[in-house]
Amino acid sequence: MERRPTSADVARESGVSRATVSFVINDSKPVSAQTRRRVLDAAERLGYAPHGAARSLRAGRSDLVLLYVPPLPVGAALARLIDDIAVGLGEHGLSLTTYLVPERGRHDLAALLRSVSLAAVIAIRPPDGPDGDALRHSRVPVVVVPKAGPGDEGSHDVLQQRVGRRQVEHLADRGHRRLGYAVPTHADVLSAFAVPRLEGVRSACRALGLPAPLVREVPLDVEGARLAVEEWTHEACTAVCAYNDDVAFAVLAGVHSLGVRVPEELAVVGVDDIPLAPLAMPPLTTVVVDGEGVARQIVHDVRQAIGDEPAVSDVEGEIVHLVVRAST
């Protein structure tokens, strides 16, 4: 196996001391421009990169950030968010690693925290139980997924409630008064998103003087979706808020199987704006969270937590948006 280049190799190649190499690589002491260029050129030729653990010791902190993901499906929206966070952190010399909490079986976050030096932890939702205790004892800064828009408190639940409220506000603007809500099967697994989204729908209905939504479980099959649609139409619902676009597609399948017209007899709005949303029949209206905006806010909060960023964020404006198409 080829040996990894060391700072001693760079020192020999560039004709300077190891201390000088360290000063250049870590930018810790003034070095002449000519010497700096000689060291950097030698490091590039040799393919030298300082060891992460050693670099952390010298800098007094790690450059590794852990993303704590509770048990939930990693769909397209979450995958995009993780990628955007990784890119944003990378621009500031930080690396992201993801910790997926298994739905079943044991895991030991405390052991991981003891074995890995972390700059910060990003949590989609603040962990409780043993994981919450482990994070508190580790004294690692914890950053929670940020606010939904100006004036909102910073929390994942507030963000998801805003998603649900936006669905209702749009349908109410269209004149709908009696709404259904489509939850996925095994919603307990998705509780980190399903519970606050439904609460957002319910709170918006209360605020607008609408009846409480008629909540029904919708599996991803035509027969199950048809039964839910039959109940909604029987109860005079004229529109349905779906937990996400996948569930909205199931609702549309149930609607079409019954010959119900969309949106004339039943309007449907989803969440996530998945790539297939414009190809639905009819094209699906959906609520989407600006993942890049969320990622920028998270990166800002991480850098602020570790002392790299000023307190004032440059992330402005609403990050929950409505994409209007023909289904409403």
From TrEMBL:
Print the keywords alphabetically: DNA-binding, Transcription, Transcription regulation
Checking Gene3D superfamilies in the record gives:
3.40.50.2300, lambda repressor-like DNA-binding domains
Task: Tell me which residues make up the HTH lacI-type domain.
Answer: 5-59
Write down the SUPFAM superfamilies for this protein, in alphabetical order.
Answer: lambda repressor-like DNA-binding domains, Periplasmic binding protein-like I
Q: InterPro entries recorded for this chain?
A: HTH_LacI, LacI/GalR-like_sensor, Lambda_DNA-bd_dom_sf, Peripla_BP_I
- Look up keyword NADP and say if it applies: no
- Pfam families registered for this protein in UniProt: LacI, Peripla_BP_3
One GO MF term attached to the UniProt entry: transcription cis-regulatory region binding
Q: Which residues form a coiled coil?
A: none
List the protein's name.
DNA-binding LacI/PurR family transcriptional regulator
Organism of derivation: Motilibacter peucedani
